[in-house]
Each structure stands twice: as C-alpha cells, then as structure tokens.
C-alpha cells in the first residue's frame, strides 16, 4: 500500500484570486496619492494651514538667501561710541549691538541656525520614533515589551533640562561632530524627543497590521521589510508628518533656550544667542529695543508657523479634533 503524499497546510490561491489581490493593491497605492493631494488642497483652504505655510515659506526663503539679503557684514565691528547700541537708522535698520555690528544682518543669518537645528532635530526624532514604534507594534512579544519600557523612560524625561545637561557634557567634543556645536544641538534635541512619535506610530501600526490590504500584500509573497516599506510607511506618512511639523516648533524653542543659556554654537549667529548677547550688553535697560525684540519676535513667528501647520494637518486627518479646540 503506497503512502499518501504529505498534506501542505499552506493556503492555495487560484490565479484569479492572486490577480484580484494585485489589482486591489495597485488601487490602494493610487488612492494614497489622491489622499495626499486632497490633504494639500484642504490645508490651503484652512486658515491655520494657509497662514502656517505662508509664514514657513517666508522664513525658509529668508534662511536660504540670508547671506545675500544681509545688508552688511554681521562680523564687522566699530570703534566709534556713536555706533555702540545705536538706534535704528538709514544705515542700520535695526541699530547695532554692543560691538557696533549690524543687528539686521545678524538677525537674517540667525534664521539659518534656528531653522537648521529645528528641521534637522525633527528629522532625527521622527526617524528614531518611527523605527521604534513600527518595530514595537509589528514584531510584538518581548520586542514590544522592551521597546515600550524604553519609550516610557524617554517619555517622562523633561526635554529642556536633559538637553541642557547633555549639550553641556558634549560641548567639549563639538569639534569631533559634524557642524560642530550645531551638530551637538541637533543630536541632543533629536535623540531625546522621539518618544511621543514612537507612541503614536505604535498605536497606528497596531490598527494597520490586521487590515485587508496588508493581508493582500502578504498573499502576494511580500516579506516583513517589504510590507513595512510599501504598506505601513505610506499609510503612516500623514500622521508622522503632522507630528514632525509640530515637533519642529518645540525643537526651535529648545535650540533658542540652549543658545540663550550659552550652549549654542559660538561661530554661528542664532536668535537665542542674540537674546543672550542683548541681555549681557544691557540692551533692555539702555532702551535698545531693536536689539532684543526682533529675535524674540522671529522665534515666536517660527514656532507659530510650524504649530499652525501641524495642527491643521492633524485636524484634516481627524476632524473630531476640532470639537475640542
């Protein structure tokens, strides 16, 4: 009596079923691009989103063309007493600092450091948070438990005090880091601010991993890496983008705080550093308002721009958020 062939427990799909799954998968990808276009259109119609994008575009143009827009050399000092903490004039639109340097030129170049640190730190934080959140929810088990504990630990750390301590400790090694002290600020702010992103991404992946389009891709033979890259990440993009945009405002505020405390890059002008210099020079008591008000106003506008845009994206993704605001 011949032995019966070993039965396979793997599901068997017909060619018609595989073809239908492939068509549905392609339709899902086309739908993502349509949703992204709809999101951009909705943001332009939202007053908060439109205002945020206009302010962000203006600040980005200023930061990119700052060297060309600066009317004078911001490092050019003056020995004339009349040009020390001078009031605004035709030659110096925002007056001068304690060394006779043009404040407007410093303000324009300061936008580069603040925007660079804010955007780069947000990218670092978003990449780390997304990777940890996806790995935690996708693999589950002991991986999920360990990463959740790590997430909780970073979540309770106060960002500004920890960033001050880390920046002070790493300041002596700034020469070994790309971009010097600016690179240290980017690394510190980014590496201690990813926990919130990780928590949000983990919750979203838990809801996505059981969806039909993920199962269809698995039927077509996609492995874990391909599923994450082609199915999860595109669906996570709007949520991650909204969280990253909001975090840029926090990163800019943190960078300004660190620069104000003297932990910024001494070789770069920054808005926080200008506030520190204005206070040290006694600009507040001498009435040199044009020295300390413009950098503070620029910090406020940058934070406002990213906050408005981020909350507008959040509101578009979940209109129920508008009921609580």
Walk me through the structure.
This protein is mainly α. It has one domain (38-66, 95-324): MetI-like fold, CATH 1.10.3720. The chain is 71% helix and 0% strand. The protein has helices at 15-45, 47-64, 66-69, 103-139, 141-155, 159-170, 181-191, 195-208, 212-219, 224-260, 271-280, 283-286, 289-317. It is elongated.
Which key phrases capture this entry?
MetI-like fold, mainly alpha, single chain, 71% helix
Ordered list of secondary-structure elements with their pairings:
Layout: H1 15-45, H2 47-64, H3 66-69, H4 103-139, H5 141-155, H6 159-170, H7 181-191, H8 195-208, H9 212-219, H10 224-260, H11 271-280, H12 283-286, H13 289-317
Helix pairs in contact: 1-2, 1-9, 2-4, 2-13, 4-5, 4-7, 4-8, 4-10, 4-13, 5-8, 6-7, 7-10, 8-10, 10-11, 10-13, 11-13
**β-strand amount:** under 5%
Please state the average pLDDT score: 82
Structural class: mainly alpha
Count of alpha/pi helices: 13
Please give the largest β-sheet: none
Q: What's the CATH C level?
A: Mainly Alpha
> Distance between the terminal alpha carbons, to the nearest Å?
77 Å
Q: Provide the succession of SSEs.
A: HHHHHHHHHHHHH
Oligomerization category of the chains in this entry: single chain
Total beta strand runs: 0
Low-confidence parts lasting 5 or more residues at pLDDT below 50?
1-10, 321-325
**Please, what is the CATH homologous superfamily?**
MetI-like
The gyration radius over C-alpha positions equals 26 Å
CATH architecture: Orthogonal Bundle
What general outline do the C-alpha atoms trace?
elongated
């Amino acid at each position: 009596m011949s032995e019966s062939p070993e039965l396979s427990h793997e599901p068997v799909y017909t060619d018609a079923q595989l073809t239908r799954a492939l068509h549905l998968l392609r339709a899902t990808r086309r739908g993502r691009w349509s949703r992204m276009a709809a999101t951009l259109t909705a943001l332009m119609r939202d007053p908060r989103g439109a205002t945020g994008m206009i302010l962000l575009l203006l600040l980005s143009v200023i930061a990119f063309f700052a060297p060309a827009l600066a009317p004078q050399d911001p490092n050019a000092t003056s020995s004339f007493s009349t040009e020390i903490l001078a009031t605004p004039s035709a030659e110096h639109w925002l007056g001068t600092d304690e060394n006779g340097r043009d404040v407007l030129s410093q303000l324009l170049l300061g936008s580069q450091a603040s925007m660079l640190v804010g955007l780069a730190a947000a990218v670092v934080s978003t990449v780390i948070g997304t990777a940890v959140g996806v790995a935690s929810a996708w693999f589950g088990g002991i991986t999920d438990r360990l990463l959740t504990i790590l997430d909780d630990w970073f979540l309770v750390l106060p960002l500004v005090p920890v960033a001050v301590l880390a920046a002070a400790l790493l300041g002596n090694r700034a020469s070994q880091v790309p971009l010097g002290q600016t690179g240290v600020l980017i690394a510190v702010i980014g590496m201690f601010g990813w926990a919130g992103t990780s928590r949000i991404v983990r919750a979203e992946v838990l809801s996505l991993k059981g969806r039909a389009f993920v199962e269809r891709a698995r039927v077509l033979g996609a492995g874990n890496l391909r599923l994450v890259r082609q199915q999860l990440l595109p669906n996570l993009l709007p949520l991650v983008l909204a969280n990253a945009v909001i975090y840029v405002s926090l990163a800019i505020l943190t960078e300004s705080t660190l620069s104000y405390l003297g932990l910024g890059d001494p070789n770069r002008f920054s808005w926080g550093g200008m506030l520190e210099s204005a206070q040290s020079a006694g600009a507040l008591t001498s009435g040199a308002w044009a020295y300390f008000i413009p950098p503070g106003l620029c910090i406020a506008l940058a934070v406002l721009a990213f906050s408005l845009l981020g909350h507008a994206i959040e509101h578009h993704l979940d209109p129920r958020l508008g009921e609580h605001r």
